[in-house]
Amino acid sequence: MKATFNDQLIADSDDTVVVEGNHYFPAGSVRMEYLSVNGDTYECPWKGHADYYDVTVDNEAAKGAAWSYPAPKPAASEIAGRFAFWRGVVVSE
Q1: Taking residues 68-88, what's their average pLDDT?
Q2: pLDDT category, 37, cuts 50, 70, 90?
Q3: What is the dihedral of CA 64, 12, 80, 53, to 10 degrees?
Q4: Are 25 and 34 in contact, with CB atoms under 8 Å apart?
Q5: Alpha-carbon gap, residue 79 to 31, rounded angstroms
Q6: In terms of CATH architecture, what is 2-88?
Q7: Residues 34-64, buried b or exposed e (16+ Cβ, 10 A)?
Q8: Which pLDDT band, with edges at 50, 70 and 90, does 74 fall under?
Q9: Where are the domains of the chain?
Q10: What 3-state DSSP class applies to 39?
Q11: Rounded Cα distance, 87 and 3, in Å
């Protein structure tokens, strides 16, 4: 799977975990130079606390387009530290 934004590869892995239709990429497959913590968070009843990131390529930003559960609840332990994308970041094979 690949995640791209503004024609730039953001993440690439054959080891994604799919939860609720979202592919969660291993942290090591994400090009973190394109992500920046934006301070937004979310509390999922069954996954726990998520942190959101802006994705920026060539001065074009997708606000809150990436998220991660650094320490999810036990039911979602398989996505710990992984990243998922939306809001303009295209995830494809």
Answers
A1: 97
A2: very high
A3: -20
A4: no
A5: 18
A6: Beta Complex (2.170)
A7: bbeebeeeeeeeebbebbbbbbbbeeebbeb
A8: very high
A9: 2-88
A10: strand
A11: 12
